[in-house]
Amino acid sequence: MPRGLNVEGLLARYLDFPGFIPGFVPGFVPGFVQRLKMLQRLISSFGAAALVCGTVAQAQSSDACSTLASSLSIENVTVNFAEFVPAGTNITLSQNYNLSTCQRPSQVVYNDLCRVAMKVATSNRSEITLEAWLPTNWTGRFLSTGNGGISGCIQYEDMAYAASYGFATVGANNGHNGTSGIAFYQNDDVVADFVYRSLHTGVVVGKQVSEAYYGQTHNKSYYLGCSTGGRQGLKSVQDFPDDFDGVVAGAPAAAFNNLTSWSGHFYTILGNSSSPSFVPTSLWTVVHEEVLNQCDLLDGVADGIIEDPTLCQFRPEALQCAPGNTTNCLTSAQVTSVRQVLSGYYGVDGSLIYPRMQPGSELLAALIIYTSGAFPYTTDWFRYVIYNDPSWDPASLTVEDAAFASQKNIFNSQTWNGDLSAFQSKGGKLLHYHGQQDPIISSDNSPRYYDHVSNTMSLPSSSLDDFYRFFRVSGMGHCSGGPGAWQIGQTTLGAAGNPIEAQNNVLLAMVQWVEQGIAPETVTGTKYVNDTVSLGVDFTRNHCKYPLRNTIKDASRYKEADAWECL
């Protein structure tokens, strides 16, 4: 097994990629008693999080929840049901209407709550499925979750996570069901729901539902999402600055059309298994080993983690097969493929379409993108949105196609507006993070967006710090997983076993920033042995605020957070 790699269980965490089953590796899900203790500590730790009394006492009853279905009256909203769900319930979720591809057949609820399922019309030919989870331990806070990929899947695991902390929580299906993009075909209203309208509509309606249930408005509004959910968070900051007081956006799929072209261009480089340019999974393992040989020590520690991949300029020619050798080496055609894969993607006029895939992500990227044929999100986006042609062949993708997709930019799906002044002016806070070993969305794109905001707003980092902070999480894969200290409180998995403190939890860090004015300087990540909490902590690391870089002070103690400093 390659250095620093723990493959077991990682693929299950890529919840927004079709074919990967969402689930929990052993030791991750805290018991219900532990969850109650976590909630008690949370409530006692934050003065602003004290339970709202009075009308909430009535809302805690199952009767209040069941009557909500008949009493709720909101334009364009049809309530399917409202039911009281006791803590510890494992909800069985319908898998009809393409939802089986979401692979979320059930979800454990950690605390008592009222579950409200709704249908919300967004036009005469489109609608969203929306759920609100209204906990009895409400803290006065509202939160919206996001989505993944191009899917129409409510991320129930995120709803349960947020609700467990006392947030009145909403989640929507992005205007269609399942992981396919076929619902976009010849229906721009469904595309509009996906790009921006589902999330915004869910927030507007969700706040009304919350007020009707609790008898008073929320105190603060938050957002938590990663991948497409990260893009949705940025879209809200850019276009709907009043929706949220605090946004946590992970691995955002910004420059979305260009990202989609980039995701598809690997197929045109590598081809299929019969192509001379194809690099099989076994050789990507060899490539990964050589990447570590060349770049792991750039940070002063050989731990299987490239702390800052922007410093790694990988030379695949080191793996060129010598005459007569065909073992654990690359042919000339394969060397060319690897170099193209790990290089920036440039367009017809020489301008950058999308930055390179960062070195270090090869093992999972090989399984998800490099060796699996045409990338399904690219295929669906071009077939059903860009060209409205179900016969479009992903093998024919060219830089001209990428340019056309970028120019079409339907409903400003690019999500690349660098002017965040409206969000800044209203006092909003944005916490952006990105794993530096992401096999789906290159981590090189996130500092590019941060720098774009800095340039657009003519603000140096010292000024951006007031409302926008970006953290690079070394060794984290796509939103979770990887050999690094990736558990930063971004999900139930990301919070399992961690101290219930803002330093170790990006969601709580955002609450502290918004409500107490204490901004995070670093985010502490945890890595458990074999990613299993019961086996104990392997190491911790403080992840730095961009543009600072983690630098080792004492290599003999590299597993301790204070052995590093941000410079």
Automatic annotation (TrEMBL):
InterPro entries in UniProt: AB_hydrolase_fold, Tannase/feruloyl_esterase
Q: Could you tell me which PANTHER family the record lists for this protein?
A: FERULOYL ESTERASE B-RELATED
Tell me what reaction this enzyme catalyses.
Answer: feruloyl-polysaccharide + H2O = ferulate + polysaccharide
Highest lineage ranks of the organism?
A: Eukaryota, Fungi, Dikarya, Ascomycota, Pezizomycotina
What would be one Pfam family of this protein? Tannase
Q: Which of the seven top EC classes does this enzyme belong to?
A: hydrolase
Protein's organism: Phialocephala subalpina
Q: Which UniProt keywords apply?
A: Calcium, Carbohydrate metabolism, Disulfide bond, Hydrolase, Metal-binding, Polysaccharide degradation, Serine esterase, Signal, Xylan degradation
Matching entries from Gene3D superfamilies are given as: alpha/beta hydrolase
Enumerate the GO terms in the molecular function aspect.
feruloyl esterase activity; metal ion binding
Q: Which family does it belong to?
A: Belongs to the tannase family.
Q: Name one GO biological process term.
A: xylan catabolic process
What EC number(s) does this enzyme carry? 3.1.1.-
Q: Which residues form a coiled coil?
A: none
Name of the protein described by the UniProt record: Carboxylic ester hydrolase
